[in-house]
Amino acid sequence: MECLTISPCVSSSVSSKTTNFSCLPSSSFRLTPKSVQKQRPLAAFQPAFHLFSSYAPKRNVHRAHIFLPHLVASMEEVDQTYIMIKPDGVQRGLVGEIISRFERKGFKLTGLKLFQCPKELAEEHYKDLQSKPFFPKLIDYITSGPVVCMAWEGVGVVASARKLIGATNPLNAEPGTIRGDLAVQTGRNVVHGSDSPDNGKREIGLWFKEGELCAWAAVQEPWLVE
């Protein structure tokens, strides 16, 4: 690329009317595109050599970030949970009340049955509590009468169901929860709910046989989620 040679001029005399300048060839300097680029903010016009050089002024590119809530909602995972109304809830006639809490919340019922639990199944269900001193009493309680087995599904159903049910000790459960409203003692706390998505699947597989679950489309779903 060609370089432009400029000889700087130095003032030889200064007066109130005129100012004379003499050019000094010996002190000439070479003006390169690089040096013009550094002084570019002082120039009124862009240098001509920018048209032929590979240099391009940097521009701030702002990329738009698009948020689509309906796409995010569609990617949320649908969980399954096992809910069981214990013998005390059945004997007290609370089955309809408890089911309606989950229905009004908007979760989908996929399995439901009234069932007399055998001892072996109760022991398998509560096997994590075998070392507890109350384990024999717990098994006697669960097998003392029929229970209502339910499978529910929905986005976040496991965590939400735990909130609907309330704390294990009904005296510590918040008003508005099932145990907070309908129970007074841990040994008679009316209802069981899975504590994790994995346990939800395991317990549903434990309490329901193949063919007892129903896969169906709820017409209200578009009115619950985007």
| Tally of helical runs | 9
Please count the beta strands (DSSP E, at least 2 residues each). Answer: 8
In angstroms, what separates the terminal alpha carbons? 62 Å
Would you tell me the overall average pLDDT? 80
Low-confidence stretches: 1-29, 66-74
- Percent strand equals 15-25%
**Helix content bin:** 25-40%
Structural class: alpha+beta
Could you give a short account of the major beta sheet? Answer: 4 strands, antiparallel
Overall 3D form: globular
- Please give the order of strands in the largest beta sheet: 6-7-5-8
Q: Helix and strand string, N-terminal first?
A: EEEEHHEHHEHHEHHEH
What Rg do the Cα atoms give?
A: 40 Å
Family: Belongs to the NDK family.
Function: Major role in the synthesis of nucleoside triphosphates other than ATP. The ATP gamma phosphate is transferred to the NDP beta phosphate via a ping-pong mechanism, using a phosphorylated active-site intermediate.
GO molecular function, one term: ATP binding
InterPro entries: NDK-like_dom, NDK-like_dom_sf, Nucleoside_diP_kinase, Nucleoside_diP_kinase_AS
